[in-house]
Specification:
The protein is mainly β and 150 residues long. It has one domain. The strands form 4 sheets. The chain has a 3-stranded antiparallel β-sheet with strand order 5-10-7, with no helix packed on it. Strands 6-9-8 form a 3-stranded antiparallel β-sheet, with no helix packed on it. It has a two-stranded antiparallel sheet with strand order 1-2. It is elongated.
């Protein structure tokens, strides 16, 4: 590791690496873009008990278009949506979740829809995260780093 006053710069690895502890101000990662050949998708990570992806935004109508890569990256059976009305109570609800879009509706007549939305779903391109296991199982399931002391 390189040292800069007050900071450590970690090397970039091209293979799976196990690090017992990692402290970082920002945790970015890059994966091959699932729907654009020759592109990389750069994300930063939230922490939680699943390999999830989120998208969020502000909308004014019934249809919210999800990012173009969403349907290739996210398992549609795991998507949850949170709506937050903006400006006034609007009795909003999610009418449908499609692979590429959300459909939102309201129980209130003659209302101009204005809301924030968050969609979260589990990645479909990697196995589900096993978020709890015994110490022994953890050690047995860690990938080898090629430096076995046996």
């Amino acid at each position: 590791m390189s040292k800069i006053p007050g900071k450590q710069i970690a090397p970039v690895f091209t293979e799976d690496v196990h690090c017992p502890e990692l402290y970082a101000d920002v945790k970015h990662f890059a994966i091959k873009h699932p729907s654009k050949e020759g592109h990389m998708l750069i994300h930063s990570s939230l922490e939680g008990p699943e390999n999830a992806v989120y998208a969020r935004g502000k909308a004014f109508g019934r249809v919210v278009m999800l990012p173009e890569y969403w349907s290739a990256l996210v398992d549609p059976t795991t998507v949850t949506v949170t709506l937050t009305p903006y400006g006034a109570y609007q009795e909003l609800y999610v009418e449908a979740v499609h692979p590429d879009r959300l459909v939102v509706n309201t129980m209130t007549r003659n209302v101009t829809m204005n809301y924030h939305w968050v969609a979260v779903g589990e990645r479909r391109d990697i196995p589900s995260l096993v978020h709890t296991m015994t110490d022994k199982a953890f050690e047995e399931n860690m990938p080898s780093n090629g430096n076995d002391d046996n």
